[in-house]
């Protein structure tokens, strides 16, 4: 295959370091799930104007949040990263408002050897989701230098695969590609979103609107626990949806982006192998067995190629 190598250009990193965070102000905090769900996810926008962070980030990067208070060692809490869900020009058009898609981490756990159960409430995600418009928040960043759009987006087509809040960078990238002030990008763009229930879809109305308005933008939703019908996961969906995915993934123009739940990349790596295109998107370790049979340790050694961007957490 005569692949077109992507050129990503420069990006800035850590212009605001965790030791010296700057103060941002929340300007929006809105639930962004499609319906009632067992999860709580909010779109949160933060004004960073007047700080070195303003205008420093690109779509696909992350920013850091430092929750207030001290940890058990009496030190400030460590920074948590959140993917930017805005385009490079921010929510405001001038790079002064950054945004993310934050899911509250809430869980139950049992003490070993005991029937007693406790509620585990993630520190930073719940702090961020509790903030009100007008509240101050300590922010850092930007972080991440690989999960970027190419400098000239028209040279490529795109397959974006998201699970859960992995949708965040794709909202920013889709805005960058489709709402560009110089006109929408005409490349073929496929967004594949996997969630447990239909009500867990994020920004669903906006993505549907974009798909209606732009014939080159295709919004695929994959539900893993439907009330009726078959369970489906993103990798399975791509394998079974022969048209267009087999053609698009075999094209030398295509870039593949994967973002979301740690482990989701394994199924996608296997599907690339099953379609005979693993060498295009992955650097396989020498002498590695077929990925269908490979153990977790072997899959962990696989590095994406410059046509595959992976951000999992
Ligand atoms: C590059 C990157 C981008 C990210 N982007 C996003 C994003 O866009 N949106 C988003 O919501 N998140 C995102 N995250 C995750 C985010 O950084 C935080 O990890 C997440 O919000 C949880 O932080 P927390 O402070 O609420 O939880 P913490 O208080 O830090 O708790 C999490 C820790 O608690 C442990 N834990 C989990 N459940 C339990 C339990 N039941 N009992 C005991 N311990 C438990 C886990 O092992 C984990 O280490 C991203 C992470 C990375 C690395």
Summarize the structure.
With about 325 residues, the chain is an alpha/beta fold.
Secondary-structure blueprint:
Elements: E1 22-31, E2 41-47, E3 62-66, E4 80-83, E5 97-103, E6 106-110, E7 117-121, H1 123-130, E8 136-143, E9 157-163, H2 168-178, E10 189-195, H3 204-213, E11 217-223, H4 234-240, H5 242-250, E12 254-260, H6 264-274, H7 278-281, E13 282-283, H8 296-300, E14 303-304, E15 308-312
Parallel strand pairs: 9-10, 9-12, 10-11, 12-15
Antiparallel strand pairs: 1-2, 1-8, 2-5, 3-4, 3-8, 6-7, 13-14
The structure holds flavin-adenine dinucleotide (FAD).
The site of flavin-adenine dinucleotide has 22 residues, from strand 4, strand 5, strand 6 and helix 1.
Give a written overview of the molecule.
- The chain is α/β, with parallel strands linked by helices.
- It folds into 2 domains: 22-143, Translation factors (Elongation Factor Tu (Ef-tu), domain 3, Beta Barrel); 153-312, Rossmann fold (3-Layer(aba) Sandwich), CATH 3.40.50.
- The chain has 8 helices and 15 strands.
- It has helices spanning 123-130, 168-178, 204-213, 234-240, 242-250, 264-274, 278-281, 296-300; strands at 22-31, 41-47, 62-66, 80-83, 97-103, 106-110, 117-121, 136-143, 157-163, 189-195, 217-223, 254-260, 282-283, 303-304, 308-312.
- Strands 4-3-8-1-2-5 form a 6-stranded antiparallel β-sheet, covered by helices on one side.
- Helix 3 links the parallel strand 10 (189-195) and strand 11.
- Helix 4 (234-240) packs parallel to helix 6 (264-274).
- The longest helix has 11 residues, at 168-178.
- The chain is globular.
- Flavin-adenine dinucleotide is lined by residues 62, 80-83, 100-103, 105, 107, 109, 120, 122-126, 165, 168, 311, 313.
């Amino acid at each position: 295959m005569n692949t077109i190598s992507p050129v990503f250009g420069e990006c800035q990193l850590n212009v605001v370091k965790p030791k010296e965070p700057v103060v941002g102000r929340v300007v929006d905090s809105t639930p962004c799930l499609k319906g009632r769900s067992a999860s709580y996810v909010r779109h949160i926008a933060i004004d960073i104007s007047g700080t070195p962070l303003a205008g420093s980030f690109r779509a696909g990067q992350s920013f850091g949040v430092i929750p207030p208070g001290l940890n058990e060692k009496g030190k400030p809490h460590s920074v948590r990263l959140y993917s930017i869900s805005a385009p490079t020009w921010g929510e405001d058009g001038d790079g002064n408002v950054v945004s993310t898609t934050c899911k509250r981490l809430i869980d139950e756990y049992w003490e070993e050897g005991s029937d007693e159960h406790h509620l585990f409430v993630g520190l930073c995600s719940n702090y961020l989701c509790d903030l009100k418009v007008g509240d101050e928040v300590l922010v850092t960043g930007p972080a991440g230098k690989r999960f970027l759009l190419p400098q000239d987006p028209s040279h490529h087509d795109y397959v974006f695969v998201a699970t859960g809040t992995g949708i965040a960078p794709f909202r920013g990238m889709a805005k960058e590609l489709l709402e560009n002030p110089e006109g929408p990008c005409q490349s073929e763009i496929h967004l594949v979103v996997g969630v447990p229930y239909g009500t867990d879809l994020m920004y669903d109305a906006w993505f549907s609107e974009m798909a209606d308005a732009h014939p080159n933008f295709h919004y695929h939703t994959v539900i893993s626990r439907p009330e009726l019908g078959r369970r489906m996961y993103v990798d399975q969906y791509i394998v079974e949806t022969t048209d267009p995915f087999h053609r698009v993934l075999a094209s030398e123009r295509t870039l593949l982006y994967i973002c979301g739940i740690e482990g989701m990349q394994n199924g996608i790596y296997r599907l690339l192998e099953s379609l005979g295109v693993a060498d295009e998107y992955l650097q396989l370790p020498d002498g590695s067995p077929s990925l269908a049979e490979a153990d977790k340790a072997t899959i962990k050694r696989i590095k994406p190629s410059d046509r595959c961007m992976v951000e999992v957490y």
